[in-house]
Amino acid sequence: MGRLAECHFLDLRPEHDVPRYPKLLSNGIETVEAESFIPSIMHRYRQLLLPVLKLCMAIMTSLGSQHKEAANQVLHFVVSHSDVFTTIMREQHTGLKLEALEELALTTSVVGTVTADMEYYDTQVEVAAKSSSSRMPLQSHLSRLHRQMLALMPRYCCLDRWLRELKALETSPDGRSREEREAIRETLLEIASNVLNYCRAVVVRSGNSAEECQVLFTPSLQEALARDYQRLEGFNVTSLDTSKPPSLGIVVRHLRQSCQEFSATLDAHQQFVHKLRNVADLTNEELKELTQSAPNTSSTEKLSSSQRLQMATGRLTSIVRLKAKELATLYHMIESCLFLVWRHLEFYLVYCQHEGTRYPLLSTSSRPQPRSLTDYPSFSSSDRFYDGDQTAAMVSPLALGVTKEDLKQLKVDALNCLNDTLLKQVQELEGRYGKGRSRYAFMAALVRRVRRVLMLESS
Fold it and tell me: How far lies 221's CA from each of 177, 226, 253, 334, 405, in Å?
């Protein structure tokens, strides 16, 4: 990883994905597309970058983020090329392009894994940060990456928007294949899961209670309540301002959408499992549809019955595996969203309630200037709030500009958004899917805690 950190070619990422060659070439007989055999500059760059990112994830997955030497080596690489990582996360794409989404998925996975759980770093990483192209200290690099990770929330934690875009690809002129659409869907789910997992890891690492946790989201549920979300969403997506943290309404909205999508995916998974177990009883039309949807299949007219049955079995097996992976990703996102909602609601509604509490919302007493909530949680104690016993790190809500009116509105909106229908749906999903899992009943415990906070404030 040390050698890869020194590789200058990784910093030479093209600014735009524009083909270097003309789109059409003519040989006098027919016109062909040049990109069909001459890859673009961006494609060639990604052929070099993506294997490196996969290597980083292989190291962190096999050795774990608690392995200090491995984590520092990967962090050294990330900091040395932080401009590239920032550019990838900041880039906005006009359409759903699989290669660009895979690049973003690997980037968020590497950044989220190596920075969210990092509690120790050696001097080599600090030296690499100061000797990078931007000449910034390590904390500045991590804060910039932290802000970019949070800025991905409104762009990718919105299932309804990109599910509509995936639906539009079925009738688009470029004719995306079924395999490509499935890969795009899987990659989008992975990006949203990486971002939520990063937020969850930051909150968990910052403290054992809501009183001590790092606050990542503003106390607004506007996105979760808005009926006409298109205008609101368009405003958030086009905004490049990373200085303002996302609102809690994005998390609640994503929780609701993930529950709906999980129910639909679970039903589809059970249907395909039933078909796979009874593949011999499928009708000719069903077999024909499955064989035609199989990859690398040109014509199925000349296939025998046994060959069609074999192809249908293979196709059903791949679909069942894909749906099972989607279910695991959606389940993890629901769990992460619920945890983040509980922690933030408890912080805002319990510990930022009145003047005179331990962390008063509006205080005139002199205190250190709080750091921005968009900054990465610092490794050093000088950037944090501490109580007299120096045991609990805390960020003042003043850094968000939260007022008493905001908290009053949060109480009202939380009761409307997190109603019994949604919370019961979460518990039912865990009952249908979570049995036999090591973390079974974890979401039920989170639901009880959310209800407890809401009941305390409604009474």
Answer: 38, 9, 9, 17, 13
